[in-house]
Amino acid sequence: MTFSTSRAGAAASPAVGREPAVKLGKTTAGPEFSALAQASILIVDDEPGMRNFLVRTLAPRCKLVDEAADTDQASRKLDSNRYDVVILDNIMPGKNGVDWLAEQRAVGFFADAILITAYADLDTAIQALRAGAADFVLKPFRSNQILNAVARCLDRVRLQRENYVLRYALRASSDRTFLRDNLIGQSAATLRVRETIARVAGLPTSVLLTGESGTGKEVAARSIHSLSDRADKPFVPVNCAAIPPEMIEAELFGHIKGAFTGADSGREGLFLYAHGGTLFLDEIGELPPPMQSKLLRVLEDRRVRPVGSEREVPVDLRFIFATNAELQKEVEKGRFRADLFYRLNVMQIRLPLLKDRGDDVQELATIFMSKLSIQLGMPPVPIDASVRAALASYEWPGNVRELRNLIERTLILGAFPDDFAGPRNDGQSAPADSLAELERRHILGVLKEVNGNREEAARRLGISRKTIDRKCALWDV
Questions:
Q1: CATH number of the domain located at residue range(s) 356-413 in this protein
Q2: Mind telling me which CDD domains this protein's record contains (predicted)?
Q3: Which of 143, 268, 442, 445 is placed for a possible disulfide with 272 were both Cys, Cβ 3.0 to 4.6 Å?
């Protein structure tokens, strides 16, 4: 918590709001207050003059500025609106600001609060800190002081959210592929997907991306986001299968302090972190049944209730979903809610298999070789005619992810693996096997490299452990 204590300016009293010497126009310039442009602010103060001064200071710079004359009115506004910052007077009739703030934190209020008061002492500062105030501004103050305090709050929250989302994406993502924001290739199948993305990107419609693992569903989701009017807002990817079922509600919806064992502090969830932007829910078919009903309500009401909270918070989101499961079949088996499926399946885009994308595999292999060689610090390995023939004929059960992993393994080894029908150690080329035999040799070769560890082999190939088990059973190995 920071303390703004300068008294070298216009007094923050009812008279300040009428004082012409404030010169509001001068403070509108400069990049230091650019963060305010999309901010929603709530001012809670019983003095009309102070509210007027703060509204005149903030309204020209902010997206929304609301005001409340007491804590009861402020509570009602929090029930119906979402604010980025609350500016709160401490000394008010009925209930002081610190007590009200502590109550709101307990029922699910996450926004930053700036406490303003003319009666500053150590006890008040400690109480404000414990109640969750982010800043403490002493009266009298200049307009620039309150603008700086709001800008600090917005910047801090933005950095916290970006940091959490980036750390979450690094934890949750098992596909470290490059070119995540670009759908590479000129095949007819790829062009059809790109055309559909271009048509739907500018609309608020939810999108369901389907296709086998490794076909590039997150790539397509990022493309939709980057082409939309939310491109400058957060893109938050969530792998529903990677979050333990007992934690997924708190991760998505957030929680208040004490909501469950270990909840030592409150936290906004990923829904709120994506506010204004795009939330990408991958592996949506793995969402536990209780969460399916909660997600359905969010889609219908655009409001979320953090775990343990008594208040629902409005959110502005664009939803993109992805799955490699056949959701219609999951509905028929009773594992996925039919009403949720119909809400998701407004606009479906199916990502093609790599083997159905023609020469895209050659372009992708060349790009991966160039990018990964730089990342790994390894010299690129030439992709000669025999390797290109193998790339074209292989079935790619792990799709683009498997291709990327093959190129990385090639760079580490210094040559394409012998079992990939590339150049052999004796300088001879492998015979032109059937696709099934080529696949068998490649998978078994990777298994040999990892000493039979099927989990590691599946990771390297970019396919599921179940696929490895099924293939091995088929080959009786």
A1: 1.10.8.60
A2: AAA, REC
A3: 268
Q: Which two tokens stand for residue 159?
A: 């950095």
Half-sphere exposure of 182 (CA within 13 A, CB side): 8
- Separation between Cα atoms, residue 409 and residue 11, nearest integer Å: 68
Q: pTM higher than 0.85, yes or no?
A: no
Cβ neighbours, 10 Å, residue 122: 7
* Pair of tokens at residue 115: 């406490």
Residues 132-156 have pLDDT tens digits of 788 888 888 888 999 999 999 988 8
- Where on the phi/psi map is residue 226: left (φ > 0), alpha (ψ -120 to 50), or beta? alpha
Query: What does residue 138 show for φ and ψ, rounded to 5 degrees?
Result: -90, 140
Q: Specify the CATH superfamily of domain 31-155.
A: Response regulator (3.40.50.2300)
Q: Which residue has the higher pLDDT, 410 or 139?
A: 410
The pLDDT tens digits of the residues spanning 174-203 come to 444 444 446 888 899 999 999 999 999 999
> For the chain, what's the residue count?
477
CATH superfamily, region 173-352: P-loop containing nucleotide triphosphate hydrolases (3.40.50.300)
CB 328, CB 169: distance < 8 Å = no
Strand, helix or coil for residue 358 = coil
**Nearest-angstrom CA–CA distance, 334 and 330:** 6
Supply the DSSP string of 255-305, one letter for each residue: E-TTSSTT--S-EE-HHHHTTTSEEEEESGGGS-HHHHHHHHHHHHH-EE-
